[in-house]
Specification:
alpha+beta; 5 helices; about 30% strand
């Protein structure tokens, strides 16, 4: 990553040959892999960034169907000091990691060669608003449950648990993120011939795809033949 001189934030380098194939793929990665990193400036040793792992969900996409101009929601524990280091209007980085896996040269069937790593990731730079009010907290946690339960085979009905939510919601601080910039990398062997991609996908499945089903992306997001 490099320093963005316009915002003072961190940005991910986008390889031209590994750009996201579509906005739909970017949106689905964020939706299906919502356990994100919230990265804010300072707070760490010698001014290093502070990072929290937490669910971040889509509240509203932009009018054009993309993230820039849209809003996401997230929350962290009130005991976590990161929220006290963030002021309304600050820029933060949201990092979403999709499926990824090691690629052994054995899949290439030629030598010499080198190993690599296939992966998909989305970085969203956002302007943050800190939401300390309990009503805002209830909105964020119920929206989070709605989004995550929508990914389940059978969605859980939270109605009976809302009084419990109300009792404990004071233990979190929530955020609204207005998205300023989107960057994405989908490096899934698309620079390799079809037969190599097939071997890469098969090897990942044989290994067990320990970091998500990257094999599906390798097969579906192909390069030029």
């Amino acid at each position: 990553m490099g320093r963005d001189p316009l915002r003072g934030g961190l940005i991910m380098y986008e390889f031209e040959k590994y750009l996201a194939p579509s906005q739909h793929e970017v949106t689905e990665l964020v939706r299906r892999h919502p356990f994100a990193l919230i990265v804010s400036n300072g707070g760490g040793a010698d001014g290093a960034p502070t990072v929290t792992h937490t669910p971040v969900i889509i509240e509203r996409m932009a009018a054009d169907g993309g993230f820039v101009g849209g809003e996401l929601l997230g929350h962290i524990a009130r005991k976590n000091p990161q929220w006290q280091q963030i002021s309304d209007g600050d820029s933060v980085l949201l990092v979403f990691s999709g499926p990824h896996d090691y690629v052994s040269p054995t899949t290439y069937a030629d030598d010499p060669n080198v190993p690599t790593w296939d992966y998909a990731a989305v970085h969203l730079t956002a302007r943050v608003t800190v939401l300390e009010d309990a009503a805002d907290g209830m909105h964020v946690v119920t929206r989070t449950v709605e989004e995550l339960e929508a990914l389940e085979p059978t969605a859980w009905d939270m109605t009976g648990s809302l009084p419990t939510f109300e009792r404990i919601v004071g233990g979190i601080v929530s955020f609204r993120f207005e998205i300023l910039e989107q960057r994405a990398v989908f490096k899934v062997s698309q620079d390799k011939p079809r037969e190599v991609r097939q071997r890469v996908a098969a090897a990942s499945r044989t290994r067990g795809c320990p970091y998500g089903d990257v094999a599906e992306l390798v097969e579906r997001i192909g390069g030029d033949e």
